Each structure stands twice: as structure tokens, then as C-alpha cells.
Amino acid sequence: MAQVEIVAENEVKGGWEFSVQVLSDTGDLRRHRVTLSWADYNLWSADGADQPEKVIEAVMGFLLSRTAAEMLGERFDASMARRKYAEADVEIPKLISR
């Protein structure tokens, strides 16, 4: 399974932007810029007690269980998970570790 590392987190208008590194099982390193809106954060962390970083880790884990890192693109919004996979809103909250 790929390893996900959050390298940086910045607050931006309407949410956060993360620099994320993904190391594949084969040793390929991919870097992504992932945005997370407050709306998606509130959907996946209903009580608001989760760190935004944990939500992005869960989103990345969810996406990487369904697609290869190179298919994600260099920049994307976390809502892509919701748009591509109907089960995302149920599964991502389960993946958030507190």
C-alpha cells in the first residue's frame, strides 16, 4: 500500500491547501497539491473535531485504494473523491483516525 505524507498545510480562502507526497510500493514518489474546502471538511468531519490533515490523509487513502497516484494529477480538490465515487461520503469518515 502506498505511503502518504503531508508535507505542508496552508489556510487558503474557503479552506486549506496541502502539499502531499505519495510513495508507491515500487518506490515511485509523486507530489500533489490538494485543496480541501470547509464544506467538504464539515461533511467528512461532522463534529469538527478532526484535524484537516487527518481528513486529507483519509481522502488520499480512499482515493489510492481505488486508483493509482499518477492518475490523480498534480493538483486536485478533495471533492474529486465525492464526484468520482458515490461511496466516498460514507467511507472517508470511517478512515479518519483521531
Strand content: 25-35%
Number of contiguous helices: 4
- Number of distinct beta strands: 4
* Helix/strand class: alpha+beta
The average pLDDT value, as a whole number, equals: 93
Shape: globular
Task: Spell out the helices and strands N to C.
Answer: EEEHHEHH
Q: Could you tell me the radius of gyration in angstroms?
A: 12 Å
Question: How many independent structural domains?
Answer: 1
Topology:
Blueprint: E1 3-12, E2 15-23, E3 29-37, H1 38-44, H2 52-64, E4 75-77, H3 80-84, H4 88-95
Parallel strand pairs: 3-4
Antiparallel strand pairs: 1-2, 2-3
Helix pairs in contact: 2-4
Structure, described:
The protein contains 4 helices and 4 strands; from the N terminus they run E-E-E-H-H-E-H-H. Helix 2 (52-64) packs across helix 4 (88-95). The chain has a 4-stranded mixed beta sheet. With 98 residues, the protein is of the alpha+beta class. The protein has one domain (3-95).
What does this entry show, briefly?
By secondary structure, the protein is an alpha+beta fold. The protein is built from four helices and four strands. Strands 1-2-3-4 form a four-stranded mixed β-sheet.
